[in-house]
Amino acid sequence: MNDANTLLEQLLSTPATTLPAFAGDGRLYALHDAGGSAQVWEWPAEGGPPRPRTAHRDACAFVAGLPDGGAIFGRDAAGDERVQLYHLPPEGEARALTANPEAIHGWGAISPDGGRIAFTSNARHPAHADAWVLELATGEARCVADVEGPHELLAWRPDGQAVILGTAPRTFESNLYLVPLDGSPRTELTPHAGDARHMNPRWKKDNSGFWLLSDQGRDFLGVAFLRPGEAPRWLFTPAADVEKLEVSPDQSILAVVVNEGGYSRLRFLDAATGAERSAPAHPQGVITKLSWAPEGGSVVFDLAGFSFPSGLHRVRPGAAEAEPLHEATGLPPLRRWETVSFPSHDGRDLPAFLAFPEGERPASGWPMLVWVHGGPAMQALPNWRPDLQTFLSMGIAVLVPNVRGSTGYGVAYAALDDREKRLDSVADLASAHRWLSARPEVDAARIGIMGQSYGGWMVLAATTEYPELWACGVDFYGIARWKTFFERTGPWRIGHRAAEYGDPVEDAELLERLSPLNHADRIRCPMLVAQGLTDPRVPPQESEQIVEVLRRRDVPVEYLTFPDEGHGFTKRENRRRVYAAVTAFLGRHLLAR
To answer: Average per-residue pLDDT in the chain?
Structure first.
C-alpha cells in the first residue's frame, strides 16, 4: 500500500495544462494546475517559459484570448458554479467584470473588434440564462434578450451587430437563433427538424452563412455549412462524431476533431469543400480544445491520455505530426489499456476499455473494479486518471464500460436508456460482471464498482438491482432519490434533466421505481460515499440519505465530505484525500482475502 500511495502522490503532483486560447498578439493562454488548482498561465509570443497570471485557491473555468493580448477568464467560489467573469490585461492584475455571487455567468464570445463580450446570466431568474453584452472599456453591461431556460451565446455576426444564441431543451436537440443588438426580434437560424443538434457555429466573414456541427437526419455529428434559414450543406460526414470545429484566420481551412471510439483524431479540411487536407499524427488521447494562432500557420491543442496528463501540442496544416509544446515529464511507466467489447443481456456488443495489472496474476484471478461514467449522455474516454492507474499498481484490474446511453456511438445508441429503458443500462453492468467472471484472469468474487454523479446513481442502482454481484461500491455524489434531487438541484437544470430522466410530476411513479434509496435495503456490500458540500447539481442530501440508511442497517459505509468543493474535486489537496481514501477502501475490500 505504501508503494501505491507513493505512486498516487507522484501522479497527483504531475501538473496538467488544458484549454489553450491564443490572443491577438500571438501570446498563448491556457489553464495550468501546478499550484494545486487550474489557473491562467501565459506563454509569451516571442517564446520563453510560461508565467502564471492568476493565483486563486479556486479553479478557473476557462480562458479566452483578446485581440490586444489580454484575456477573459471565469472563476466560481468553492465549486458552486456561480461563475464570475474577469478581464486580464496584457500586463497587470485582473479586474472583475461581474460581481453577483448568486448568478451564473456563462461564457460566450468576444466581438470581432475585441471591445465587447457576450455572455449569459441567470440574474433575473435562476432558471433562465438571458443574453448579455458588456463593453470592456467601461464595464457597462446590458441584457439584449430575455429567454426561458438555459442558453449559450456561441458567436458574433461578423459585423458585430448581432450574436448567436444557442438553446438545448434536450440533450440531442439544439437550435441557433440570431439576436440583433438593436432590439429587433430574434430569428431562427437553423430549420427546426425535431431532435437534431446544431452546434459550434463559426460565421463566414462575408456574412453569407456559417460552418457548424450538426446531426440533422444523421446518427453522428458532421460538419456542414449553413445559410440562414436553409438546410445544411454537408462537408464532412464520417461514421463518428465530429466534436470540435475551428476555422483558420483566413477561413480556408477547418481544424476538426473526430471521436474514434473515444480517442480524439485531429484533421484539417478544406473549408469550401470539406475535402481532407491532412491528418497529422499525435499521441492517442483526448483533445478538449484547439486554438488557431493569429497568423493562421498552426494550431495548438490540449491532449490527455490514460498514461499522461493533459499537455499542449502544436501542429501546422500539412505537417506529418504534431510537436509537444508543453507536457509533463518524469512520469513512471504506466499500464496500457485495450479497447474491448462485451455482450449485453440483449445480445448487443458494448464498448469498453480494459487494463490488467503487471506481474503474475493470482491463482484465483485479479480483483476487478468497474468504473462507470457520469452523464448519462457522456462517454468514458481514455483520459488521465491517477486513481485508476494507482489501483492497477495495487493489483486491481479496471474495466471502463460505455454502456447503452453513452454518447460517441451514435444518437440511436445514446437513446437506448431513455426513461422507461433506464434500467437496461444497469443491466449492462450486470452483463459486464458476467463477462468478466467468465474470464480466467478475473476473480468473480472480488469485483467492485465505482462511479461519479450519474455514474454514482449507476453504482447505487447496480448494488440495489444486482446486490449479489458486487464486492464493494464507491459512490461520488450520486443521485439517491429522483424526487429529492429535482427538489434541490439548480433550477436552471430542472427542465433539461427532466427531458432526460423523466418529468418529476408526470413521471413520478417511474422515478420512484428508479430511485436506489427506495431499494437500499437490498445493498449488501461495503460502500464509500464522497460529496462536495457546495454541489449545485447533486446536492449533499442525496449522499446523506443513502449514508443514513446504510448506517441504520449496519452496512459498512464511509462518508467523506468536502466543504470547498462542488460537483467534482478540483483542488489537488482534496483529490489527494479522496483518492487515498478510495485506495485504502479498495485495499480492504478487494485485495484482502
So the answer is: 94
Instruction: Please check whether residue 113 is in contact with residue 24, taking contact to mean a CB–CB distance below 8 angstroms.
Output: no
In Å, how far are 85, 306, 337, 576, 578 from 8, measured between CA atoms? Answer: 34, 14, 18, 8, 11
Task: Name the pairing type of β-strands 557-562 and 128-135.
Answer: unpaired
- Written out in words, the top-level CATH class of the domain with range 338-591 is alpha beta
Copy the grid coordinates of residue 359.
506481474
- How many Å from the N-terminal Cα to the C-terminal Cα in the chain? 15
Rounded distance between C-alpha atoms, residue 444 and residue 96, angstroms:
55
Residue found under cell 467489447: 341
CA distances from 549 to 114, 515, 519, 527, 553 (A): 55, 13, 10, 12, 6
* pLDDT bucket at 490, cuts 50 / 70 / 90: confident
- Cβ proximity of 403 and 425 under 8 Å: yes
Residue 415 DSSP class: G
Q: What's the pLDDT score for residue 500?
A: 80
Instruction: Please report the sign of the dihedral spanned by the C-alpha atoms of residue 376, residue 381, residue 384, residue 385.
Output: positive
User: Exposed/middle/buried for 42, CB within 10 Å: 0-12, 13-18, 19+?
Assistant: buried
Distance CA 468, CA 463 (A): 8
Spans of all domains in the chain: 238-329, 338-591
Nearest to 280 by CA among 271, 262, 268: 268
The residue assigned the cell 454514482 is: 456
The Cα–Cα gap between 261 and 274 comes to 22
Strands (E), 51-104: 51-52, 60-65, 71-75, 84-88, 95-96
Spatial CA neighbour of 337 closest among 311, 313, 307, 370: 307
pLDDT in tens, 239-271: 999 999 999 999 999 999 999 999 999 999 999
b/e string for 199-229 if b means 16 or more Cβ within 10 A? bbbbbeeeeebbbbbbbbebebbbbbbbeee
Q: What is the pLDDT of residues 41-85, one digit of tens each?
A: 999 998 889 999 999 999 999 999 999 999 999 999 999 999 999
pLDDT score of 236 more than 70: yes
Cross-strand pairs, 314: 300, 323
pLDDT-derived band at 154, boundaries 50, 70, 90:
very high
Q: What percent of the chain has pLDDT over 90?
A: 88
146, with CB counted inside 10 A (0-12, 13-18, 19+), is: exposed
The Cα 522–Cα 516 span in angstroms is: 9
Residue 405 has pLDDT above 90, yes or no: yes
Q: Where are the strands (E) in 337-428, listed by range?
A: 338-343, 349-355, 366-372, 397-401
Q: Alpha-carbon Rg of the chain, whole angstroms?
A: 24
Confidence of residue 192 (pLDDT cuts 50, 70, 90): low
Distances (CA, A) of 357 to 285, 366, 377, 381, 388: 20, 8, 30, 20, 11
DSSP 8-state secondary structure symbol assigned to residue 590 = I
CA distances from 481 to 80, 458, 488, 552 (A): 21, 12, 11, 17
pLDDT of residue 593: 64
Tell me which of 351 and 489 has the higher pLDDT.
Answer: 351
